[in-house]
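EI: anyone free to look at a 302-residue chain?
SC: sure, send it
EI:
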Amino acid sequence: MSFTAKIINLALKISGMKKLYLLPEDEFLRKVKKMNEKKVFYVPTDNKAIYKKHRIKGRECLIVQKEKKRAKRAVLYFFGGGMMVGPDKGYIDAIVKLAKKSGCDIWYPMYPLCVDHCITETYEMIYECYKEMVKIYGGGNVSTCGFSSGGALAIGVAAYNNTMQDKLPQPHHIVAVSPGEVPWNDEERSIMKENNSKDPLVDYAFMEKVEKFEKQGREDVPEFMIHMSKGDFSGVNHIHFVYSKDEVLYGAKQNFIDNCEKYQVKYTIRERSGMFHCYALFPYFKEAKEDFEEIAKILAEV
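SC: here you go
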């Protein structure tokens, strides 16, 4: 492990960020809402890329282009945050890098969070976004990519597509970095709990409480939206997973593998020991740079 990675891991542990997940539900929700007050949609004013503001089902979406002319292909990119916390402005830097390195336009929707919305509303919005992208760029020219809960949504687009009567072409590539889900079997729970002390960012306690927020009191929420590894992956060509072996969400890996094999979907898994959750989102040290480059390379493939 690089020296920088060790320092970041230590800093995250000292920060006590995991304490948020241990709060009672009502206090946890108050804290999250307070955090989200500062996480508002914005359009950068720099000259690093071409930025366009777009609206889908009344929600904002930022389109990032390498050049003024629209690219031939695009990526539907999802931020993480456990379906509860909005994105920081700093995420835009990674998106700009991804646009430049992949040669794709990046669509970055501010999807409904489960602080106030049922996860079904989240899926309705992101699928509408995907539908519009397929119409513009054409079938086979749109990929999905996401980190953490965003990784689940990157896969979830394909599963949701398989519930439609008039299905769209499936994403060209799916890149899921540490995709999140509520655990549903003993093996998954066991690994998550075992990794809990090693993960400086995500606490297993969150995995036990997030389902209630995602459902928002509804009992008719499709199972795959809560347990993504139970989704119908049929028709998907290839899913690329990226994990830290020491993170809580590594516990879901085998469930995703089993489901890929069930639906005869090719998959690759890139994993490292000692990394923090979604480390590849911050390409400022050796391991993260290498894996971010690999993600961009995958999305650049025709």
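EI: Strands lie at 50-56, 59-65, 74-78, 105-109, 142-147, 174-177, 238-244, 266-272.
SC: 👍
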